[in-house]
Each structure stands twice: as structure tokens, then as C-alpha cells.
Structure to design on (175 residues):
């Protein structure tokens, strides 16, 4: 994820036959805090409906995802970053089996420059992944399988530049 433009608001977008996307970025506090937001989605069901095979024409598919990244300069040696991600995928085959996946996560990072040879990046985050597959077209054989993965994480990475050809990387990671 790149930092957003901290001088002015700008954006891009695109509309296609199956998907659309956009990006918007700009300053929250000029020259100090910026954001960048991106999102994508699909509307591909029309193409599935056009397929002559009923197994496909009775199917549905969709997804979306969105990212946001906020960066803030505290001073010349300290920066804060907040990043978030959200996604959902949904597919139903032949009006029967439905597959759903989803992700949500957020991370907060602090970068500190100790001197011109040594810096550190400390981060903490949360993640949530969800999966669901189900079928209920025939009540006798109906089923639903779901699971989640939830985790928190902490990471401390440090880099010490010994000279122009060598550097030392070390840190700590906990999930």
C-alpha cells in the first residue's frame, strides 16, 4: 500500500463489462496526513445468465474488496500508518451450492528513525477470515459448513545498516 497524496485530492476509476474500480487519495491534513482509498466490484451475473447451459445460467457470482491507508507524519523521525482491508466473495452454482469467503483486517504501524543507520517498524493488527459453503436445495441432503480464523498480531522489525554493502535485520513477531 502506498501513501496517499498529501498535497491535493485526486482519483481514478474504471468501468468494464464485468468489473469496476476506483481510487481516491488526498490530504486529511495538508503536508502531514494523507489517505488513499481503493475499491473493486463485479457485476458478472449478466454473463452467467447468457450461457445456454442452465447449470451456469442459474449460477451467481460476485465479489468486492476495499482498501484504505492513512499515513501521518508526526515529525522527521516518526510516522504512523493505519491500513484496513475488507473483501467478500460470493458464488452460487446452479441455484444450489453457495460459497462465501470474507476477509477483514486492520493494522497500525509506527516507524521510528533512530539515526541515519538504524530504524524500526512496530505494528499491531487484527485479522478475521470467514468461509461458508452451504446447500439447501434438497432438505434431506442440506448442509452448511462454516469456519472463521480470528487472530491478532504484533511485530517489531529493526534494520541497522552496518555499511553500504551490509545491513542487519532483526525483530520479533507474535500471532
Amino acid at each position: 500500500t502506498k501513501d496517499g497524496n498529501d498535497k491535493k485530492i485526486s482519483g481514478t476509476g474504471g468501468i468494464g463489462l464485468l468489473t469496476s474500480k476506483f481510487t481516491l487519495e488526498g490530504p486529511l491534513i495538508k503536508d502531514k496526513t494523507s489517505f488513499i482509498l481503493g475499491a473493486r466490484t463485479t457485476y458478472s451475473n449478466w454473463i452467467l445468465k447468457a450461457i445456454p447451459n442452465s447449470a451456469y445460467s442459474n449460477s451467481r457470482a460476485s465479489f468486492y474488496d476495499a482498501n484504505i491507508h492513512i499515513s501521518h507524519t508526526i515529525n522527521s523521525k516518526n510516522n504512523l500508518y493505519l491500513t484496513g482491508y475488507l473483501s467478500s466473495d460470493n458464488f452460487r452454482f446452479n441455484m444450489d451450492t453457495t460459497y462465501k469467503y470474507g476477509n477483514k483486517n486492520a493494522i497500525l504501524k509506527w516507524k521510528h528513525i533512530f539515526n541515519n543507520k538504524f530504524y524500526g517498524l512496530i505494528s499491531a493488527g487484527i485479522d478475521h477470515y470467514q468461509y461458508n459453503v452451504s446447500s439447501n436445495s434438497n432438505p434431506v441432503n442440506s448442509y452448511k459448513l462454516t469456519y472463521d480464523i480470528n487472530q491478532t498480531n504484533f511485530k517489531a522489525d529493526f534494520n541497522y545498516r552496518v555499511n553500504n554493502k551490509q545491513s542487519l535485520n532483526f525483530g520479533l513477531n507474535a500471532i
Observations:
- The radius of gyration is 22 Å.
- The mean pLDDT is 93.
